Amino acid sequence: MAIPPVVIERLPLYARALAILDEQGRQVVSSQELGEMLSFSAAQIRKDLSYFGRFGKQGRGYNVQKLLDELRRILGLNRQWRMALVGIGRLGRAILGYEGFSPQGFRIVEAFDSSRQLIGQKVDGIVIRDTGELEGVLSKNPVDVGIVAVPAHEAQGVIDSLVRCGVRAILNYAPIAARTPRDVTVRRIDPVLALQGMTFYLKADAASAK
Amino acid sequence: MAIPPVVIERLPLYARALAILDEQGRQVVSSQELGEMLSFSAAQIRKDLSYFGRFGKQGRGYNVQKLLDELRRILGLNRQWRMALVGIGRLGRAILGYEGFSPQGFRIVEAFDSSRQLIGQKVDGIVIRDTGELEGVLSKNPVDVGIVAVPAHEAQGVIDSLVRCGVRAILNYAPIAARTPRDVTVRRIDPVLALQGMTFYLKADAASAK
What we know:
- 2 copies of one chain form a homodimer.
- Chain A is an alpha/beta fold.
- Chain A has 8 helices and 10 strands.
- The longest helix of chain A has 19 residues, at 5-23.
- Chain A is elongated, with a radius of gyration of 20 Å.
- At the A-B interface, α1, α5 and α8 of A face α1, α5 and α8 of B.
């Protein structure tokens, strides 16, 4: 059974909510309560989790620890993932310094930029290397994930290089719809797209207020 | 007819692809070609756009200019949106300096932080004000959008303040599922969630390779 990508995208939210409950010592949680924590309907949660077998018992709720373990296993959250960051401008520096990655098992192990002034510098404990050497470096020391924080016109070339090095998961901060082979997953982080998806609702409100 | 949120989220991508075609002087585009530009199926594109009336003629494709104008109108892309940014740490500075907002009509007009050292400083042309003064400032000078780049434990309080000032669109960079009234739209920018949604596929591949 193929699991819809939108369901996969929600699973990390479930895992995060369950981890909070687990820390609080909670043993059981209902789909209603999980729904309230995440602003989803209880029906949505039951449907999403039904893709992964029967975690809950009718009327008794979900076993927090068991469901959390299972989601962590499904999502591969119980292991370490090596990442390479390309582009160490203002955004790249914020990404390098982001403290949310390593507690979740994501570690930036290589950083690349094409600026002469940056190459060889150490930022947040990582020596920045020449983007031109990316394929040589990553073919010797493979990474699981590539993070692309270069300007739009450089992004497709960088993504092609990452794919040639066997990277099959790319977090793309550049404002382009990347072209990749089918077995490569790309997630786009684009605040403008997120904003443009919200103004629709602001506009709708403005119209209805007339 | 209620338009599903996932469709709304894809419309800015269509607008962006059409703007590129328009700049190239293209007058007509097929759903196939739009699909190739965006890595969607042609059927998906026809279905999404069907929510907004009949833009295309059977077998003739879509009129680029007309469809672009219509999407811009639907999404409110032809006007200026005022934004307030809260949290001027490393991430907040990257957001303040992000050059992709203003060409798309999104302008940061107020910036807030609670650090004594930052209040009163000018960063990228904007004077940083005390987060404690947020409600006073925004009730006099309303904004359309709030951008939240504070640590997780401060985020809900900041979001509540923004909502009290009438902000109904929030871009949330903090790793929390914010609680807001129904008429407030929140989009979460969370690279860890995006990464965790990709490792599922890496894991699936690893398992199938055994």
